[in-house]
Structure formats: C-alpha cells, structure tokens
Fold each of these.
Amino acid sequence: MPDFDSTGFDSTCDLYDRFEKTARVADPVFRDFGQRRKFAGEAVTIKCFEDNSRVKETLGTPGKGKVLVVDGGGSLRAALMGDLIAKDAVKNGWEGVVIHGCVRDAAVLATLDLGIKAVAAIPRKTVRNGEGQAGLPVNVAGIRVNPGDLVFADEDGVLVLAAEEFGAAA
C-alpha cells in the first residue's frame, strides 16, 4: 500500500481531479457519524445483511491504515455497528468505517476518534447468526470496492482508487 496517513490527502475533490478517468465515487448517500471527518486507508471488505457478526469480528482485529467497507445492502432496518463495536475499532487503530446501511448510538459515535460514514442511524440492533462474508469485492453506493483498494473519505464523500494506480502516481 502506498505510504500515506489518514489525513495525508488534500480532499476527495482534488483526488477526483487528479484521477478523474479511474476514480470511483460513491453515490452521495452517506452521513458522517464519527469524530473524524477525513480518513483514508486500505479497504477491508464485508458483505452482510442485517447480521453484524463479521463487522464485530473484523473491527476486533488490528486495523492501522485500514478502512472497513461494509455492503449491508443499504438496509434501513437494523444497525450494523454501535458504540461498543466502534470503540473496539478505535482501540485497534482502524482509520474508518464506511457502512452501506445503518449505525446506532450516534451520540457516542460522534465522540470517537474514528471516521464513520453510514446511510442513517436507527436504534434497532442486528441479529448475530455468524452470517456474512469477508474479503470479497463489494458494491456500495453505486461503486465496486475490492479488498486492498484505497478508500478516501471527507466531507464531500467517498472516493476509491486501485492501490497500484495511486502508488504509480505518487
């Protein structure tokens, strides 16, 4: 992965201008929930639907330099991450989380040093039946995200680049 920190890019707008032909820009469906508004890292992917087992498991592992991208199918019925799982993410050094779905405990999430983008907040938690898949390409908000892609997020949105492309231009 190219050497950069979570705030080492000017903006997603500047990145788009630089990589216009190949940048993948997510549809503008995300809201900011974490304290960090600007974050970046290597994509770690999960596909799950109303079951946050893989999210909890993954954010409980070291995440320095990584962004978890969750294809939750855009479900608005249950939260895929709440305060306890998000606190684990902070403890384990994750840069951020992008969830095509919901979160809960929004007031606490806003105090955590973590980038969090999700579609909405809802009080209902998910079930945990051990469902979901990790480490595969996912489709989130109109774009494909592959494990190892670079995810950049700020107040203007979410932009994804292939790691090789960013590294070649650095």
Note: The longest strand covers residues 39-47.
Amino acid sequence: MFRTAWSWVERVLEAVMATFLLAMALITAIDVVGRYFFGAPLPGGYEIVQYLMALSVFAALPLTTRAEGHLTISMMTDRLSGCARRIHRVIMLVIITLMLVFLAWRMGVQANHLSHGAALSGSLGIPLARVAYAMTVLAWLAAAVSAVLVVQAIGGKPAPTLKPEETLE
C-alpha cells in the first residue's frame, strides 16, 4: 500500500514540478520579449518566478529524499565496509530527518507569522502565507519520507541504486 501511495504522490510532485518549470520558462520568455521588443516587461513576472522556484525546490525535496539523492562524498563512503556503510547510512538519514523536521517546523512558524500579519507580495499582492504553508507541507512530507527511510535502513533495506546517468564523476 505504501508503494502505491508513494507512486501516486511521486507522479503528482513530478507533474507539479514540470508545470512550474514550464511556467517559469514561459513567464521569463514573455518578460524578456516584452522588455526588449515592446519596452513593457510582464508585470509581476519576476515575482511569480520567485515563488514558483521556491515551490519547485520544496516539491523536489521529498523526491530527492526518497531517492537518497542528497550530496555525498563518495571518496570517503566508498572505503567503508558493509557494516560500517550501513551504520553510516543510518546516522546520515537520522541527521537528514532531524534537519528536515527542523526546516518544516520553522517553515510552519513562518507561515503562521505571515498569515497573522496578512503579508502580501510587493507587486501582485499574493498572500505569502499560502506559499509558505505549501512549502511547510512539502517539507513535512520530506521529513516523513526520511523517517521511513531511517526505519528501512535500520531494518537492513539497502539504499536505492542510482542509474549511471544520475551519477557525477
């Protein structure tokens, strides 16, 4: 059941990220064309791109966490034996989980602060609390995914293997 639910969440997050990236590209193109050919940039275009970028990053966070795609220094970890590598993975996942919980908690505090102050964006008057709440939910999702990975790692489940095109040499 978890795999089916995660598969659905993964598809939704990927679709959201693709939509946001396409929207950022189109808004930027319209803004540039408007600015250089018509002397009139897209009103609020830069502001919209900023919020879409933040939401894209936070939408990618659960996916990156699930793939254990965070930065690592393989020079050091490749030299570890099986047991030491497993212990290292568990420790790193616990640290990542704690960091994600802290991030999600602080984002929630910030979202509440923004909602009580009714903060709006500068150009378009977009309520900032909505963006912050969306980022909070995505950060909590990433923290939950990381917590599941900790339990799986303690239980002995190996880390996901990366495809050759996903590794940097």
Note: The radius of gyration is 20 Å.
Amino acid sequence: MKTLVILALVVLITIPESAQSEDKLAIAQQYIGTFQKNLMKELKQGLTHGPTHAITICRDRAPQIAAELSNNRVTIGRTTARLRNPLNDGPEWTAPYLTYFNNHPEDRKTLSIPLSDGKQGYVKPIYIQRPCLNCHGKSITPEVAEALQSNYPRDQAVGYDLGDFRGIFWVEIK
C-alpha cells in the first residue's frame, strides 16, 4: 500500500511537469512562428522597394519585433555563427545549437533545452529562402554590397545557397 501511494504521488507530480513542458514548447513555437511570420512579411514588403530597403527592415524591424514579442516571462531573438549585426549575438547557451544544426541540416524541429534558474530554452533553425539570397547569397548586386558594407562593415553573412542553414530563432521561457 505504501508503495502504491508513493507511485501515485510520483505520477501526480510528473504529469503537471510534463504537461507544463509541452505547454512551454507550444508557447515557444507560437512565439517563433509569430516572429518569423512578421519578419518575413515586412522583408517581402521591403523587397518591393528593392533589396537595399530590405536591409534597413532587417536591421531596424527585426530587433523591434523581437522586443515587441518579449515580455517578463518570454524573451525571443535570433542569432547565427556568421553574424551580420553584432547585436544579434545570442545568449551563450545557443552556441552549441548553431553547430548542431549546421552539422545536421535535416533536423528542422524546435529543440527544447533546460536552462538554469528554472528557465527553458528553445531553438529553431533558420534556412535560406529565395528572398534571402538578395542580401545573403553568393551573387549580390554592387548596390546591395555597398549598402551592406556601410551598415555592417564586419558582415560575415554572405555566400549562402538556397536552403543553407543560416542561424536560429531562440526563446527563453521563465
């Protein structure tokens, strides 16, 4: 009987924790999806005015969108191993996942990472899509190259092909 009571307590304690973990994953995926959708919408609109305009959208609006989505419980951003904007350097815990996704391009799912202080981290890979090639591809126009150089003198984010791993969206949930 004592064993049965202990087993029942373990089950009761475990169920909410796993449900909470699933809830956090759903929350993370929702935040990443919103960030990704809003950024792509603005970038596509920016591209209608030319790729140099899209550079300013990416520079100015991407951090603003991340800030607008972040709150006292959730923080979101994006990062890469080949930075264009040094301000997009992610939290230290994201670095191994940049290497992981670079070495496992077939893995496109959101990963869950336990962090310190009861936080939970999530990462989702970003892959180069056709519109991204205007500013991140191997063949960019002189006008775009000049705009990139003036905005990002230490730019490392060019030379990609369609479908290449570019970086990650990351989320921290308290």
Note: Strands lie at 74-79, 111-114, 120-127, 165-173.
